[in-house]
Amino acid sequence: MKKEIIVSLIIMIAALVAAAALAPVLQAKQREINPDKDKLSSAPVGGMHKVVADWEWMGFINYLGNLQTVDESNVKEVTARLERLVRLDPKFERLYLDGLSFIQHADPKKTVDMLDSACRLDYLRNNWKIPFFTGFIYSRNTYDIKDQNGPPLMSADHAKAAEYFRMALERTNGAPENHLVSSYIREVAKAEATGTAPDREYLARLQFLRREWAQSQQAGGMEQASLIPDLKDRLRTAMQDALHPHDIYGRDFDPSPELRELADKIRQEVFYDENLCSKCLHPAKPGSKFCTICGEKLNNPTFTCPHCSAAVEGRYMFCPHCGKPFADTRKDDKAK
Amino acid sequence: MKEVWTIAENACKNILKLKVVYFLVACVLILVGSMYRYNEISLNRHRELLLDMSLLLNQVAAILSVLSLTFDIPRELREGIAATFLTKSLGRMKYLWGKVLGIYAVACVVCSLIAIGSYIIYASCFPEPIFLIYVKIQLLIILSAIPMTSICTFCAVSFPEMAAPIIALMAVWFSSLTHRLKIPVLNGGILPDLDLFNMKEHVIYQVDLPWSYILGTALYGVAFAVFVMMLSGIIFRLRDIK
């Protein structure tokens, strides 16, 4: 009897040691597989966070259905429900995109705080919509729904907005949606615009895109080096906008000499081998003598092949008409 | 060893021949299937709801299955059935192991039925494939029954018949929270860590779970079960059985 108990005790201790040794290893492995696990609520729900989150979500929708609007009278309750949901299921993407949209007008600061936490979650590290939403809130003044003429609840922070739009761009794997790219460029321009000149944002936008272009050239001329796709097209559009600026009321005004000078520099640096109209910057077809968009006379309509005298775009290495190389001729042309 | 298998087989058959078990499994599957109709009330979150509900109910089924030990052992002791066994050459430890293996087999069968049924319901409702990760998580639920069975055995031999199921249920619930106690040996050693078996959200979020982790949790479950079973065996040996 005693022998059996001693054997049992030995096995028991060995098993205890094995379990105690395995548990921390598995706990570490669990954190490695799921780094967001520690962000879960400490509510004693027996590990059933996910199901409780589902029920809470349905309760939240039901609760919102009974509200006419979310304002200062109920924003605390709505926020508390959302925070509870975040703690129960921090990976729930729609909670941030749909759920937080209900409080973005009533409590924008809390909204961006919660969105910022979501941006830093490991599971959502490839989600671009959440940083985009965060940047969108930062990009404008948020006013109290009941007092649109009063002071804003949160003023626009263009630098922050640009930071979040950039984060969103980095998460799109090189295929961002157009509105995301436009928002990023616009917010960088607004953040970098200085002075009081009416065309300061046009100037900042051109300066930023030129900088991006220079960086992509340093990286071997690869446009992928920049987060902004179709950089050349966007530069041309930005130049077109800059040469025909208008104020926030849509009234046209003349661009400043500084802006004209910058546009001209960019034209020489970036579009030196393209035949752009000097007035509207529309690319002209080979052989055109006048712009087909604005009717402006083109100064340098085409490059003429020295071998067959055909009008071709100057960026080719070989003539598309006779097939002969004109690299040497171009050098001569440049020298002249 | 033969005696252990005989007891395990009897314990398993006694429960699996009850029609109420299959009725409850059918009820669970109907409840899981009904989640498909929650698309509007959940703003199109019915897929997650269906999967979460199937995993939750499977976990509850595992708990209820192993909890039957806390009724079975005291009942056999009270009715003298166990005494008949124990007066023979059969040791008390073998009796406990037989019971544990039998009830664990019940938990495996019930959980597998619910898992297979739930998967068929899911596959007929939604196109997103989840097979492998679903199997892994269901396997973790079945593995979680190993330490839970030993906890229930410990409660069955250590506490009065009336209190044993309640204490066992509380112990299982508490075991899912022990990971918050960052005390070595106590956490995961003396106190079980059932949170290691809880990776249910991986099914929804399609995050893969390595087989090495599942194997590790199985080893942990067995090690902890052996520890508690040996402790239960010592207590059971010292107990006076009429």
Feature tags:
heterodimer; A: 336 residues; mainly alpha; Serine Threonine Protein Phosphatase 5, Tetratricopeptide repeat; 3 domains; two-stranded antiparallel ribbon; 12 helices; 2 strands; 52% helix; 1% strand; B: 242 residues; 74% helix; globular
Topology of helices and strands:
The complex is a heterodimer of chains A (336) and B (242).
Chain A: H1 2-33, H2 49-65, H3 75-88, H4 93-99, H5 108-119, H6 129-138, H7 158-170, H8 178-192, H9 200-218, H10 231-243, H11 257-270, E1 303-304, E2 311-312, H12 327-335
Antiparallel strand pairs in A: 1-2
Helix pairs in contact in A: 2-3, 5-6, 6-7, 7-8, 8-9, 9-10, 9-11, 10-11
Chain B: H1 2-16, H2 19-34, H3 46-67, H4 69-79, H5 81-87, H6 92-125, H7 131-158, H8 164-175, H9 201-205, H10 211-238
Helix pairs in contact in B: 1-6, 2-3, 2-6, 3-6, 3-7, 4-7, 6-7, 6-10, 7-8, 7-10
> CATH-wise, what's the superfamily of the largest domain in chain A?
Tetratricopeptide repeat domain
**Mean pLDDT figure of chain A:** 84
Number of domains of chain B: 1
Architecture of the largest domain in chain A, according to CATH?
Answer: Alpha Horseshoe
Give the number of DSSP strands of chain A.
Answer: 2
Instruction: Give the topology string of chain A: H per helix, E per strand.
Output: HHHHHHHHHHHEEH
Radius of gyration of chain B: 19 Å
The averaged pLDDT of chain B comes out at 88
Number of domains of chain A: 3
Assembly classification: heterodimer
CATH class of the largest domain in chain A: Mainly Alpha
Shape of chain B: globular
How far from one another are the termini of chain B? Answer: 25 Å
Largest beta-sheet characterization of chain B: none
